[in-house]
Design brief:
Layout lengths: L1 E6 L21 H8 L2 E7 L3 H11 L3 E3 L2 H7 L7 E4 L6 H10 L4 E4 L7 H14 L3 E3 L7 H12 L5 E8 L7 H12 L2 E6 L3 E5 L2 E3 L2 E5 L4 E6 L9 E6 L2 E6 L4 E9 L7 E3 L3 E4 L5 H15 L7 H16 L3
Parallel strand pairs: 1-2, 1-4, 2-3, 4-5, 5-6, 7-12
Antiparallel strand pairs: 7-13, 8-11, 9-10, 11-12, 13-14, 14-15, 15-16, 15-17
Length: 324
């Protein structure tokens, strides 16, 4: 049984699953670790006393601490196999250093890893030097349908990719990094061609920015923006030689329209009315924890790492710096 330390006791740590039926897929670290069966929540860190107490009751956590220094004073190095960082981004840098001092077998960190590329680069290097794998929760990398699509695009099952259009809001680093990371998985490395006007729709220091990217093979990729005050938007359209594939509602739904002969105009090819397919995004967190377990037990490769997160953050940082 792998011992887990949870750092931060908010929504992603367990709050979204606090009253959620166990018949539904888990959405949080605690929910997924508990459901898996190969992990034990040994301790948690949360400076808010009431929140920490409620979290400990809900998830059966034996010990709770105000900060990482208190954990280190009470536990020797090696006491935890996994340290899950569910705290605010600004706290990650110091907490990863404190986590490395505890010598876990793996660190599982919410994204962004840190607010800046320089900090993230340094932490990724320190984890590598310490021999501690860093998994980063770019969740869609663990969604089964996204993984299948990535394989299908790589093998040419949909024909040549012609273009892609992603739409997001709530910050180029906070939410845009999810989209850029997803595009990296599906289409490979991209370079920035143009960054548009910055939109301050939620975070004062992290605007939402439209951009034009290009893959290594020359495929244009457009990043469009929505406003966070209106609603949450995270969608992706991929146009290929044989179909238009659209991820909607963050991955909860997909729509596929395939190329067919026109029923009306001889010699023309058109798109059919399409089919809607239920997405598998809600399986992602459970599969992330299963991937962590397989990595710890038999060395299975992590689907999302500090290196993949750093690649996405570098491009997001360039978009933000070059916004007009």
């Amino acid at each position: 049984m792998h011992q887990v330390l949870i750092v931060g006791c908010g929504n992603i740590a367990g709050g979204f699953d606090a009253d959620r039926s166990t018949s539904l897929p888990p959405l949080t670290h605690a929910g997924a670790f508990t459901r898996h069966g190969g992990f034990q929540l040994k301790a948690c860190v949360e400076p808010d006393t009431e929140r920490r107490a409620a979290y400990m009751r809900r998830w059966g956590v034996a010990r709770g601490f105000d900060d990482m220094a208190a954990v280190a004073a009470a536990h020797p190095p090696g006491a935890f196999d996994v340290i899950s960082l569910c705290s605010p981004t600004a706290a990650h840098s110091s907490q990863i250093d404190a986590a490395l001092a505890l010598r876990p077998k793996l660190i599982f960190c919410e994204k962004p890893v840190t607010p800046t590329v320089v900090q993230t680069e340094a932490l990724v290097q320190r984890c590598a030097a310490a021999g501690v794998p860093l998994a980063v929760n770019h969740t869609r990398r663990w969604a089964p349908d996204v993984q299948r699509l990535a394989d299908e695009l790589k093998t040419g099952a949909w024909g040549s990719v012609r273009s892609a259009v992603g739409t997001y809001n709530k910050g180029v680093l906070n939410n845009g990094s999810h989209l850029v990371d997803l595009l990296h998985l599906l289409l490979g490395p991209m370079s920035l061609q143009f960054a548009g006007a910055a939109l301050a729709d939620h975070w004062p220091d992290d605007p939402t920015v439209p951009a034009l990217l290009q893959t290594a093979s020359g495929v244009p990729v457009h990043l469009n923006t929505a406003h966070a005050a209106d609603c949450a938007v995270f969608e992706l359209q991929i146009i290929t030689a044989t179909a238009v594939i659209v991820m909607e509602d963050g991955g909860l739904q997909w729509r596929v329209r395939r190329v067919i002969d026109s029923p009306h105009f001889r010699g023309y090819r058109v798109l059919d009315p399409g089919e809607r397919i239920a997405g598998e995004y809600l399986q992602a967190t459970g599969r992330a924890v299963a991937n962590l377990h397989q990595h710890l037990t038999n060395g299975q490769a992590l689907a999302s790492t500090g290196d993949t997160a750093l690649a996405a953050q570098r491009l997001c940082d360039e978009i933000r710096r070059k916004a007009i």
